[in-house]
Amino acid sequence: MIDETENYRRARFAELNAQADIRAELEKRYGKVWSTEELRADYEVIGFGAPYVVVRRKATGQTGSMEFQHSPRLYFNWQEDK
Question: What is the reported pTM?
Answer without folding.
Answer: 0.83
